Amino acid sequence: MPRTATRRRALAAALACAAMLSACTGNSDDGTSSAAGTPAVAPDSAQTTAASAVSAAATSSLDGTAAGAAARDKAFVGAALESANAYAKTLPGRTAAEKADAELATTGVKVLAISRSGDTPQQVLAQTTLKKTGAAVLVLLVGGQSGAPFKAAAVTPMLPDAKLDALDPTTDGSAAVGDGSGLSAKPDDVVAAFAASVKFPEPTATKVLAADPLSEQLRQSARAQSQALNNQGAFTQEHEPKGIIGGLRLKDGKGAIVFAHLVRNDAIAMRTPVKLTPAKDLTLLTGIKQITTEANLTSNEIIAVVIPASGQARIVAASDQLVAGSGR
């Protein structure tokens, strides 16, 4: 599965003297209603569906065969599918320990929230864990219309010490985010603020988001990658918002949990040709075995953000996965 963002490998942090490169929100009027409703899926059915969907995602993520690719098509959707397919391509270069670090638990899956009847797409927010460490992982499932199966649209390990506020009982269903009315900031504005705050160079400070370990790690990693080039090249990093994946309102109108997709572009341009060895993930994905003048890496970032009714939004879960790259 896509690795947790707080543990992502730096593009060029392993450079040694520049000799080596380690490398929908739902439709729902204004979405502010907190009155009890009817869940889109019965709680018992949602629990069975979530357990099955998480199991399918976990199993197919570790299967690099053609059968695994077919299984991922049934288990994932959107950016999550692209990320899962990219991760599967890197399996031949991963150790058993590395695979175990990313493996999802298929038992103990818990449904946290269910969207309300009439809201589209139907959503089930579930929680599982990383099998090895027990760390919490949020899984957003979407689909269900006309008997279509639910698929994982986001699989995001929670950040250290992050907490998710209470959601409405599954028997009532949770209201859709709608147009973001009643939130301290519009979801698109929050995502844009995050993207600007972690770009490199020249990040833009924001008061929309509270400080979090993901943003700090991204900024520190970018600085390290730039410094590792030792003035022999330039490093840039851009985070491009690609849209809101989904989300649900919190209990008693206290805000919403929103999942969003961004694409991160890491670029290195060497001032003079230098023989660089790419990280194994890039080689497995693209076949590139050596870089001499430039490299461009593309990664999917999926973040889960709690946006309160007032106050700063905060990122509570995130994942990223290298999905493409080029170099020469």
TrEMBL record:
Q: According to the UniProt entry, where is the signal peptide? A: 1-28
Q: Which UniProt keywords apply?
A: Signal
A Pfam entry, by short name: DUF8094
Q: Does the keyword Signal apply?
A: yes
PROSITE patterns recorded for this chain? PROKAR_LIPOPROTEIN
The answer to whether the entry has keyword Signal is: yes
Which parts of the sequence belong to the DUF8094 domain? 73-326
Q: What is this protein called?
A: DUF8094 domain-containing protein
Species: Terrabacter tumescens
